[in-house]
Amino acid sequence: MSHLEFTGVSVRYGHFTAVHDTSLVVREGTTHGLVGESGSGKSTMARVAVGLEKAHTGTIRLDGVDITDRSRAAKLGRRRVQMIFQDPMAALDPRMPIGASIAEGLLATGRRHNRIDREQRVRELLDLVHIDPARASENPSRFSGGQRQRITIARALAAEPAVLVADEITSALDVSVQGVVLNLLRELQAELHLTMFFISHNLAVVRYVSDEVSVMRGGRIVEHGPTDTVLTDPTDPYTRELLRSIPVMGQPLDLSDANL
Amino acid sequence: MTASPDLIVPSGTPADRGNRLRTVAGSPRLAFVLRRLGRAAVSLVIVLVASFFMVQLVPGDPVRAALGPTAPAATVAALRADLGLDQPVLTQFTNYLTGLLQLDFGTSVTSQRPVATTLAERLPTTLFLSVASFVVAVVGAFPLGVATAVSARGGRRRVLDLGVSGFLGVIIAVPNFLLAVLLISSLSIGAGLLPPAGWGRPDQAVLPILALAVGPLAYLARIVHVEMLRVLDAPYLTTARSKRLPPRLIYVRHALPNIVTATLTAGGVVLVGLIGGTVLVETVFTIPGIGSTIVSSITAKDYPLIQGIVLVYAVLVLGANLVIDLALAVIDPRSAIGEA
Amino acid sequence: MRTLRTPQGIFVLVGLVLIAAMTVLGPLVFTDAATARNIGDRQLGASFAHPFGTDDLGRDLFARTMVAARLSLLLTLGATAISVVGGVVLGVVTAVLPRPARRALSALIDILLSFPWLLLALFFSVIWGATSSGAVLAVGFAGIPVFARIVSTLAASIANADYVHVSRMLGGSRLRTAVRHVLPNIAPPVLVNTAVHASVTLLSFAALSFLGLGVQPPEYDWGRLLNEGSERIYVSPMAAIGPGIVIVFTGVVFSLLGEVLSEKRTRAVRALKGSERVAEVVPSENVVDVKNLRVAFRGEDGELVERVHGVDLSIAPGEVVGIVGESGSGKSVTAMAVAGLLGPEASLTAERLSFGEIDMRRPLDTAARRTLGLEQAMVFQDPLSSLNPALKVGRQLTEATEIHAGTKRGEATRRALAALALVRIPKPAERLEQLPHEFSGGMRQRAMIAMGLMGSPRLVIADEPTTALDVTVQRQVMRALRDAQRETGAAILLISHDIALVSGFCDRIVVMKDGVVVERLAADDLDRAQHPYTRGLISCVPDMTTDRDRPLPVLGMVDEEEVPA
Q1: Is the CB of residue C488 less than 8 Å from the CB of residue C461?
Q2: Do B196 and B186 meet the contact criterion of CB atoms below 8 Å apart?
Q3: Which of A96, A175, A198, A222 would you mutate first to test chain C, the one with the most C CBs within 10 A?
Q4: Are residues C258 and C348 located together in one domain of the fold?
Q5: Which chain B positions have a beta carbon within 8 Å of C387's beta carbon?
Q6: Is there a single domain that holds both residue C92 and residue C230?
Q7: Measured between alpha carbons, how far is C205 from C196 in angstroms, rounded to an integer?
Q8: Among 3.40.1620.10, 3.30.470.20, 3.30.420.10, 3.40.50.300, what is the CATH number of A1-80+164-172+195-245?
Q9: Nearest to B298 among C130, C229, C448 (CB)
Q10: Per residue in C336-356, pLDDT tens?
Q11: Is the ipTM of this complex over 0.90?
């Protein structure tokens, strides 16, 4: 089990600073939820963790090893942090059968696999995410959105990651299908003792999945702590406003003095 | 910044990333204009260099090639000295540039007249031909494109729509010189309605302009058609319909302004193509413009004349592109902001 | 391929066969006729024996055209190959280089692209001379910038796809990613463009030869024949028109080949016939009355597919009704039908479909349109595209009341300012003069609500108005909607997939699934929902009280989720 630590991370796009000097720890074997609205910088945090963006200042350490620089150790470390994207269709090569896409994940383990091992492993992974292994030769277009998302999870798992980063993975799915993906994540975390960094704008989903929560706004973390504490009795006014804005089944919407 | 969650999210768009020019210039539009002028300047430099080196790159001896294998060596040497080809390349280039600044394009080998004179005589004709054809193409394309789009969207006249679309497709496929020949043989020789060649009288301009403009008209009409269909399906058109505005208002006020950008861009491509097309059409109709001249000068290997015409054509094209880009910046401010 | 069975596909196939026949068989069959001089028969016009006439040496021009096919096509293919290979190399290099070099190279390509191909070709033919090989090089090189631009744009867009990022994150080298992911996804569009480009190259080559700068005698290609023929159009027009027809035909076949190869399917709208005479109905007091509504659409294969199967709905004055459902439930289609905004490709039948006294099944007259324009307000889902990007917001607010109620501009502006104030948009006077892209998402939705307030609305139809917005912004928009309702007493029809939102805002809820209404209940009675789908929807959405120690309930059968079409 590994832990991921952000220390003093800043990310800039030209004049615009998406993340200001932010620190955060994803503890081993737990799920850390990062919640915020558009422009909060939460997706940037996810992307910088897997190397899709560059941090201008600060470090990100996986088990103590800095994975932001250009050293070989950093490169190897980055491979152990894998991401699941929001749009499963864009995350799968439309012209590759799903078995081949999943097998690509095996590259990251650094071990060689012969064809038989590869196919075996792909079958195991498809089983793990509850997709019929006999369908490994089909193209992504033959699967629904929820199934594609599970396929991308299988690919990420093939890499035997230390940390899994989930960036808005249920936002593009129908409500009835979200549950399947979330349940799968719970199951996998319990079985494989994964460390997860879960990013979403949906507070209820984050609450369900996470042991610890950080709330982000305007590139900074305004509140963090154990899930129950933060989301039951928050101290930060923004967190409170967020909670007030969530519609609750069966209760009238709280529309009093909504700030401008 | 105290980001109220309601603000527009600047998420690292190209307009934000490292756009120092924008902060210097103070407004994205001005930055866009400066950038375009800069690019035009660079293009001009490239054109100057290219037109100069055109002669240098000709394999073998360009002078020999121009005069033929039987010309006496003394004549060849004299012409070489005349063209300055016996001097080092850098000197030639400097002379070339200084000459251009004084509007001295050299002397034509075939006619022994200054190239600048020939250009001055013939350029207006080509300009007129290009611009007139452009106007015809644009004026014809808009109503045609809009009408076919509205009809296609209604879906009630499928056979007619398919027929018109197929007809336009064929017209686009007919090259302008072939169209010129066809027009001459049908309207001029066959029906005797219009003169087949020459220049000077208004009726002599009809067939050349038609030959130049018809293909681009069909092409532009198709672009207008596609854009119109895209816009008519856009959500803001549903909003306009939900207000139950009269159809005329919906098309003119709501739809048309949104096709201007794409149409203008296509118009730029068309205008540039028309400028190139003058070469062919002038040749067919024996019109004394720079287009017919460039062909004869290439055949005759009259390098100073070729260089002069290539340069003028290139400047015309650069000018056309610049005008279109500036018009776009004025009409659609978002295209200026969006450009990286 | 299905595409081959279309008229276009058949034409292309037949055309390709003919072209191949000309190329392969032409010289074999026609060489004799093409070279046989017959001075006695010179310069004949078109006739049965000589369909294109004869040239000034008495040779049959049709035969010469057939023989010239091989040379023309070989030269075209050669030039096209140069353009494609050069363009692909240049384009891939451009996409792969580090940023500064990429921008410089890209700018160079743009500059080259800004010149018409003919001038580029002339430029190159000055250098390489007026011969067939020179012309192949000239036309080939002139076509490289076009392809380079296409390929670099394609490569750049694919290089930005998530699956390419994943491949790199999994440790794949740049080369591996390029070969396994970028190239296979570039290949089809490049193929399409090659076919189209071949068409253009053919015509360009003909142009060069026509000008005398391409193929030189005694060789001849189609362009050369056109050149010789055009000198004789006074005597025998077919001498030029004949080869011309063959050139155009070949060009059209190639460009249609490109269209057929492209996997894009153009959406042809087929309007469905207008509804038959509909019976008169008794006016009701309800704002909206819908009975047995059925809506069908014509699919791509021409089959009529029904999406809404007999929906009933009624909305009383001032009532707030919500329709809840997932994608494919038909909720949006129902809302559009109520608004009378379904397009010509929809076929609508209903026993009753009325807005107040207006029968929405019939075509609307001017009075009905005026009423609807003033009394019905719409808020759509996508704030980015629901407002016209080219028009000022003020104009979009005032136009309906100006047209339908004849309100003068000054008065309309005053009301627009009041409407913007009601939805709490600050600095309304400035905002009226702005374009929509200067508004944020939530502000645009509130502006749409304000637009509805300009008339005297009896119904506001809001179709997923907050789906694309942050939850705090959603609160502001829902508040604006509520204030609008209180101010005008209008009824509201709210469409959403978020059952919690609908239960918190509406008086009544209608649950739809697969085109039918499965349950209707008051918002207060949600916990007493009967239908299993409703109960499933309620329980499977995680909220702030969900038990974190148990798996989430899942709707229905999971592995038989609908595969998208």
Answers
A1: no
A2: no
A3: A175
A4: no
A5: 236, 239
A6: yes
A7: 14
A8: 3.40.50.300
A9: C130
A10: 999 999 888 888 999 999 998
A11: no
